[in-house]
């Protein structure tokens, strides 16, 4: 993330609603032009450790913590992005999507609605009868490369790389690497065809 | 929408929480009987341009803008309905569901939990390196006809018509038109059988 | 639920925000050590009839009513748990998950992100032209047995029992009973193999 965030947004929770320290919702057109980061609203919870680029735009009901989001990216309603996840510049992250720790999304990626990433292929709630902590598992990683598009309702398993400008069709379940420019659909997802050139339909 | 909404509900965001202009949550049984529209609560964001019929009921954490919702319809938690989407009368829209621009839902339709509609079959985040705007794509449409039921966890691709009283089984991915009274399941969704008469199981 | 909740948490909605009767968000490390139940925050709606065990932990944007949740269980963002659902002790309920009436989840179960349960196999919005009420259908049940893990993006149909320590792979659609220690994936879900011993991978 080349651009340091202009300011760190805090979670607009009950305390901050009451003491008025959060940025105003619905920023007016006359807001300080030196920062183009859209101010959060009362329905947005962005932890202080989130690193935001310039001009990131938010819908309502959003939960972000410990992640990076690049310049000009848009984030839809009911989205959670966990710590140590990275989202690039000029991405669209659509509503109801979950981006977990271990996921890296490069620039200019489209993530549809209700997309779910995975970082643990053998999850368990407990180890020896006690709730698992972070010490009990290794975060598995996922990489979505530049310009790719992930359709709505898609589930992407861990340890997968999705190639540049690939398109994952709505409702697919991606279980293995996807080549650049490939079009994938189904459960499990299979390559149906390839785009002839980048960005082509 | 034959019945003009009695009032336009505004987003219960930080401003309105502070200045007290929103309707009270949890309306009491003695509220004004002339309007049966359930008042929003502090967790509900309904933009001023939403056209609501009579007696629409809301759960919590809802994001509606620019859409129409008919009389007596119920809307669950974590639902987003976008501009230019239309939902008929006496529908149930269950939690975690996303209804996008271009979707028309007729009367008496059941939409399960976590249902996702699609309006762009070849989505991209950017065009020539700049974030796409509305000028960069054509909204594709979906029609769900009277009395149909969409099971939970279903994804419905764009350019699809779902016939009257059809039933889409939970977890299906609908990729093409569904005849009236058909029962569909799987990914891709296939017709398994037909109801003999409307509404029959 | 052996342990009576120390206190009943109320929905932090507009009224309670205004009159200050809700528990403070973001409890400080110095809070009363006699109760380890994490206090709700301004984004959490927990109805007064929810029965919580000890030390239940909540993320943001949560809607619970009429359900039971056991000791030490963690509940993620954008989760709804309906009345008459039961969640055991030391479970993890991940973000975007919907647990409906009729679902029983035993102890030490992992529920991934965006998991959807079902309690009505033939849903309809209306009966004879009027919106269905609870009198119009029978709640169908689902049981997830001790130590099982449900992957992210899974849909579980009604009338299903998932055996102890079974693992449902991400994106699967479970349509019938799953034996103990089985590993299931696909749509419809099929048993791929068995763990040799409980908790094994």
Write up this protein.
Three copies of one chain form a homotrimer. With 201 residues, chain A is an all-beta fold. Chain A has a single domain, classed as UDP N-Acetylglucosamine Acyltransferase, domain 1 (3 Solenoid), CATH 2.160.10. Chain A is 3% helix and 28% strand. The first copy, chain A, contains one helix and 23 strands. In chain A, the strands form five sheets. In chain A, strands 3-6-9-12-17-20-22-23 form an eight-stranded mixed β-sheet, with no helix packed on it. In chain A, strands 2-5-8-11-16-19 form a six-stranded parallel β-sheet, with no helix packed on it. In chain A, a hairpin with a 2-residue loop joins strand 14 (126-127) and strand 15. Chain A starts with 13 loop residues before the first helix and ends in a 7-residue tail after the last strand.
Task: Determine the most extensive contact between two protein chains.
Answer: A-B, 43 and 32 residues
- Along the chain, the helix and strand elements of chain A come as HEEEEEEEEEEEEEEEEEEEEEEE
Q: Just name the CATH architecture of chain A.
A: 3 Solenoid
Work out the helix count of chain A: 1
User: Whole-Å distance between the termini of chain A?
Assistant: 30 Å
For this entry, give a set of tags.
UDP N-Acetylglucosamine Acyltransferase, domain 1; homotrimer; mainly beta; 1 helix; 28% strand; 8-stranded mixed sheet; 201 residues
């Amino acid at each position: 993330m080349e651009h340091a965030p202009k300011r760190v947004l805090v979670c607009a929770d009950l305390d901050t609603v009451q003491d008025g320290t959060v940025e105003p919702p619905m920023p007016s057109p006359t807001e300080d032009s030196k920062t183009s980061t859209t101010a959060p609203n009362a329905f947005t919870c962005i932890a202080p450790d989130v690193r935001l680029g310039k001009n990131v735009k938010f819908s309502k009901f959003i939960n972000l913590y410990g992640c990076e989001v690049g310049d000009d990216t848009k984030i839809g309603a009911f989205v959670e992005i966990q710590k140590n996840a990275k989202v690039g510049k000029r991405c669209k992250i659509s509503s109801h999507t979950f981006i977990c720790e271990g996921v890296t999304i490069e620039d200019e990626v489209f993530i549809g609605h209700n997309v779910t990433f995975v970082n643990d292929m053998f999850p368990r709630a407990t180890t020896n009868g006690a709730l698992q902590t972070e010490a009990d598992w290794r975060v598995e990683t996922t990489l979505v490369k530049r310009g790719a598009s992930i359709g709505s309702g898609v589930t992407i398993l861990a340890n997968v790389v999705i190639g540049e400008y690939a398109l994952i069709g709505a409702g697919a379940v991606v279980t293995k690497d996807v080549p650049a420019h490939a079009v994938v659909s189904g459960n499990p997802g299979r390559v149906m065809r390839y785009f002839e050139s980048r960005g082509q339909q």
